[in-house]
Design goal:
It is built from five helices and no strands. By secondary structure, it is mostly helical.
C-alpha cells in the first residue's frame, strides 16, 4: 500500500513539473499571453490541491477517493494523449516526462487494487 501512495505522490510531482514546462512555453507575443498564463497557473494550483486531497484521502483508506482517483486517471491519461500529443509546443522533456508519469500513475492505481491493498481499505472502512 505504501508503494502505491508513493507512486501517486511521484505522479503528482512529475505532472506539476510537466505542466510548468508547458506553461512557460507560452509565447509572450500572443495578445492574451498574461491572461493565458494566469488561467493556466490557477488551473495548475487547483489541480495540485484537488489531487493532493485525493491522495491524502486514499492514504487514510477512503474507498471513494481510491475509486475517484482511478476514474480520473482512467479518463485523464487517454485525454492527455489525444489532446496534448498532436501539438508541437512540447519541450524535448515533455513527452518522455508525460509517459513516465503516466506509467507511475498507472502502477500506483494497479497497486491500489491488489489484494493486500483492498484488504487494507476494507479494514480502514468497517
Amino acid at each position: 500500500m505504501r508503494i502505491a501512495i508513493v507512486c501517486l505522490w511521484w505522479w503528482l510531482a512529475l505532472s506539476i513539473v510537466n505542466a510548468g514546462l508547458g506553461i512557460w512555453r507560452i509565447d509572450p507575443a500572443l495578445p492574451n499571453a498574461m491572461f493565458i498564463l494566469l488561467v493556466a497557473s490557477i488551473a495548475m494550483v487547483v489541480f495540485l490541491l484537488f489531487n493532493s486531497f485525493l491522495i491524502q484521502s486514499v492514504d487514510r483508506g477512503r474507498k471513494w477517493a481510491r475509486n475517484t482517483f482511478t476514474a480520473l486517471r482512467g479518463i485523464g491519461i487517454p485525454l492527455s494523449v489525444l489532446f496534448a500529443f498532436p501539438r508541437e509546443v512540447h519541450s524535448s522533456w515533455s513527452v518522455p516526462l508525460f509517459l513516465f508519469s503516466s506509467v507511475i500513475a498507472l502502477s500506483g492505481v494497479i497497486l491500489l487494487f491488489v489484494p493486500t491493498s483492498s484488504a487494507w481499505f476494507d479494514a480502514a472502512n468497517p
